[in-house]
Design brief:
Layout: H1 2-12, H2 24-43, H3 49-64, H4 75-106, H5 114-127, H6 132-143, H7 147-171, H8 175-183, H9 188-223, H10 230-239, H11 243-271
Helix pairs in contact: 4-7, 4-9, 4-10, 5-7, 6-7, 7-9, 8-9, 9-10, 9-11, 10-11
Amino acid sequence: MTATVSMESSASRRWKKPPLISSPPLRWCLWVGAGVYLAVALGTTEVNWARVLEGVPRGAKFVGGFFPPDFITNLDEILSGLYESIWMTVTSTAVGVALSIPIGLGAAKNLAPAPVYYMCRGILAVTRSFQEVIIAIFMVKLFGFGPFAGFITLVIATVGFYGKLLAEDIEDMDPGQAEAVKATGGSWFQWINYAVQPQVMPRMIGLGLYRLDINFRESAVVGIVGAGGIGVVLNNAFDQYDYGTAAAVLLVIIGIVMVVEYTSGYVRKQVQ
């Protein structure tokens, strides 16, 4: 009997995760409001089901046009576009990461003085304000069609992505190691080299490889607006209703992304 009472009392004292919103009336009002909003949104969405049913056979025919993929007819164009995309990806990632390091150091509040901090944070905010396609359109207008416009686009995108994450990692690092280097009279560069770099380097390598993956995929997207790369080949294939070549290009993109994914996973495992 005593054991049963003890088990019941321990079960009643079992920890439960507290709700995000502590007030039950407010919680229920939010649930009801979200349900009403969803019902109204779905009710006001106009869907022509007759056109949907008519489009199903056309969609099936469109998808069927991708089989079998045609790697042979436009092989030279596919290889040329792939070479451009790989060139854009590798060079833009390397240059973007190199530019991100000083900007990221300046954007870390625990490293840089206030004027440098706000200037570098402003640079990162501007570089992340626009999606890559918008930047690519602007660069094509400036530099003309070709991979150079795509290269500049991906460099800008890399600086915004990598610099922000680097700055946040530096701000979240353990201050004990940095204070120890300072206490020994180390210079600012020694502080960065022996206190900051060992703590952020493994994650930065992983993020660099992840950005390499993103840049390859984005090289296909910016190519659609004329910024070079395999996206130009893909866009031309769709314009000519050459779905076999389009399927081949898509498979090449998927294959490259998978190779980069597995390679980056292996490298991250080695450095961490």
